[in-house]
Amino acid sequence: MDITITFESSIQREAVVLQAWEPLGQTWSVRAKPENGRCSFRVTGQVADQRTVSFKYLYPYEHRWEPDDYVRRIPTRRVSSFWTFDFLPRVMVRDPYAETSPDAVTFFLKTRTEFVGGSLFVWKPGTERHLSGEDRAEVRSSDRAERDQPMCSK
Question: N or C: which end of the chain has fewer CB within 10 A?
Answer without folding.
Answer: C
